[in-house]
Amino acid sequence: MIRLRTPLLAATLLTGAAAAGLAPALAQTTPAPVEKHHHALARLLPGQLVEGRIAFLKTQLKITPAQEAQWQQVAAVMRENAKALDNTIAAARQNRSATGAVQRLESREQFAKMRADADARLLTAFKPLYASLSPEQQQMANRLVAAHHHGWHRRA
For the CA atoms of 31, 35, 36, 42, what is the dihedral angle to 10 degrees? Predict the structure, then answer.
């Protein structure tokens, strides 16, 4: 299904870009073939994506100047969590070839602990921000957290 969806998504993006008169510029920056591009994305580390995620969330939540200080604390925790995950992933990739069943389970346990610690740090930073959000902003935050939790961001 991923193989079908990826070319379809690329075709849709190129069609939309052509309609906007951007096809030549996009064609120069879009790697080909799409399959290789898809596998390259799987190698990106969270630290390479965190600034985009922070910008996206700030825009979607419509953070006001009064909320900026609390938002910056959330963003700092997101960066810290991404860096910790990058380090854990890098270590796991280095040890990938020499792992057996026990080592793989230990690695999964390490990831689970790291994820729980990251979630606890994020929750601590997010609670004051959430309390300062308007009802509309809270509704958006609820949707964004639910979508992220269910992996919907990975299915797009």
Answer: 110
For residue 150 the two structure tokens come to 């269910």
Contact 118, 66 (CB under 8 A): no
Instruction: Count how many domains the chain has.
Output: 2
pTM, rounded to two decimals: 0.65
Q: Summarize pLDDT for 19-60 with one digit per residue, the tens.
A: 344 334 434 444 444 445 555 556 778 888 899 999 999 999
Angle between helices 2-19 and 34-42 (to 10 degrees): 110
Indicate left, alpha or beta for 32 from its phi (over 0: left) and psi (-120 to 50: alpha): beta
Range of the domain at 136: 46-155
Instruction: DSSP letter for 63, please.
Output: -
Q: How far is CA 107 from the centre of its chain?
A: 21
Whether residue 140 sits in one domain with residue 74: yes
Q: Please write the tens of the pLDDT for every residue from 134-145.
A: 999 999 999 998
88 closest CA partner among 118, 51, 53, 125:
118
Which single residue is written with the structure tokens 């609820």?
A: 142
